[in-house]
Amino acid sequence: MIRVRFISVSGEEREVVAAEGARLLEVAQNDGQPLEGTCEGQMSCSTCHVIVAADDFARLPPASEEEEDMLDLAIGAARTSRLACQIVLTPDFDRLTVRMPPTHRDMQGR
Ligand code: FES
Question: Whose CA is nearest to atom 4 of ligand 1?
Fold first, then answer.
């Protein structure tokens, strides 16, 4: 079983069960989390950015250089930020906790 916990910007927590091999982005979107994922995993948008709980971050495989480059552009990026489209869930990641980043364009004055 792979359980994933989402924490909204306002702090609301939801736990969902994900299928092995599912991408974190799909799991989040199926749960109604506000991740646009505009480029559908092509690593050219960063609208699937999430902040991984510090304890869980080390369990994930390291980000590729391309992912790091996109994260540099993500609004509200933190040290444990990742692109949800690049995370394929396996049982090793059971109880992964990720936070939604501060609301995108609002902080940029839209
Ligand atoms: Fe565009 Fe992840 S969906 S970078």
Answer: 43
